[in-house]
Amino acid sequence: MTTIPAQNFTNDSGTSVAANSLVVPTSSGYYNVFVNGTLQRGGLTTLSATNLIINTGLVVGATVVVEVINFNSSASSTSVNNVTVTTTISD
Fold first, then answer.
1. In Å, what is the CA distance from 79 to each residue of 15, 74, 83?
2. What is the rounded average pLDDT of the residues 30-59?
3. What one-character-per-residue DSSP string does 12-49 give?
4. pTM to 2 decimals?
5. In the Cβ-directed half-sphere of 13, how many Cα atoms lie within 13 Å?
6. Regarding beta strands 30-35 and 38-39, do their DSSP bridges make them parallel or antiparallel, or are they unpaired?
């Protein structure tokens, strides 16, 4: 098992992530973990704001990337000439 603390990661800008500041998916989101560019199977990792736990050992120097996808949706309704148009937007 390998535990990687949040502060060992950098964000998209190259800035170190603060302790307890990893982005975790919302209930409608998900995350992917890549080790040396290879997507890892689901269920092999656990992500929290504090750390990433990978249920296998890693070779020193391995590159680990965490991709978090969160979805937000919104809906609006407009009535024009007694016709209602409803729009749902998902990110």
1. 47, 17, 5
2. 90
3. TTSPBPPTT------TT-EEEEEETTEEPPTTSEEE-S
4. 0.72
5. 3
6. antiparallel
